[in-house]
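Researcher: Here's the sequence for the chain we discussed earlier.
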Amino acid sequence: MTTETDNQTAPGADEKLDFKRILPIFIIVLIDLLGLTIIIPLLPLYAASFGVSPAIIGVLGAAYPIMQVIGAPILGRLSDRYGRKPILVISQIGTFIGFIILGFANSIILLFLARIIDGISGANISTAQAAITDSTTEKTRTQGLGLIGAAFGLGFIVGPVIAFVSLAASGNDYRVPAFVAAGFSLLSVLLTSFWFQETLPAEERGKRQNLETLSVNALLKALKNPAVGILLILIFAQQLAFGGFEQLLSLFTLSNQGFNASRNAIIFVYVGFIVVAVQGYYIGKWSRRFGDRRLIFGGLALLAIGLTAISLTPRQPLPGYSQAALEEELSGGRQAVGETPPTQNVGVSLPDESNTGWLGLAWILVSMVPIAIGGGVLQPTINSLITKRVEPQEVGGILGISSSFLSAANALAPLIGGVLFQALGPRSPFLSGGILMALLLALAVKRITPGREETMAAGLARGGGGH
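Model: Thanks. This is the structure I predict for it:
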């Protein structure tokens, strides 16, 4: 164990991230996230198989983020009082129970119960972030917290792969991925119990009772700030469009292409690879070359193009598609009284076999590229520009407000998208998102003017300090 004396005798030690301390947190978060990302491509189809409307599926999609918004501050404060480890373990047990209920669900009510329990428990990401804060210095904190983003990226690639494999191995039994997710959740419980070392000393617990809470007044004040108000509007609106795309993609491809859960899982892997490549490699290069302001304009333009394009996808299943087989898969053997055949219970319309081909899939894959790049660029770039346009002592608070806008968008996106899907058709959520991004691009070009960060960068370039 490193003591204060050791740190004093090792100059620069506090400038390097202690990966041995961070690794258990990273692995635990990754495994915890695998459970969530295994379920994401499957959930809308699972719900549709119970015959509920797209609007109800949207409410189901919103249940998880709403519960996260409620649960995150509660779990965070409890971890300040009782330590990080017990709160992580209890919340992970809750996630495990949620996945078990999901696997045994035989009604939409049980699906809702599973997502509510998992949403409250899934708010433990704030506790993991607190553990990383405990384990880092001010100089290494950004790098440490960045590993949470890396865990999300890996989870959104590996999770859908696991979903695809488990569905393929089980003959597309939708219950199996839920039980596999429960297995990963149980593993995270065991790792936290036996590997994770408490990061908040007993003498530090209960000292953080008077922290300023986020208020409506604080949100309104931030929106009125001429330096960052438009950026906060953008981070909310882009997540409303991109989050709605993520939540309703499986339902759209089910209705438009007849894609089952396995094929949707592959689509999610494809998107995940692009987003991880953008956020893990390209975004740094693009930011240095074009600057955050222009990168935001580019991200909005790409998202507008991609969402509009995907809304125009031809309704064409792949060769070999069978509507009856897909209905049978979705029904999962459930049969309502007097229903013949049992598969008529599916909650959305499915394409028939009269027009099969490859154009629909090709159209989707091409449209995904600008969507994934735009969505991958916008959130980190907008947050980066926000931090450069406020005073250093305001960075933490303004990022907390930004996070609140993101959470609100995540909750609203499936609600609005589900209603649009049901009222105006499957294409309407994506077309609406594309139009919204185009309007915001025009507003952003007008309102986001060059700031002090561009003046400083230009000065460095003239002075030979640029790379």
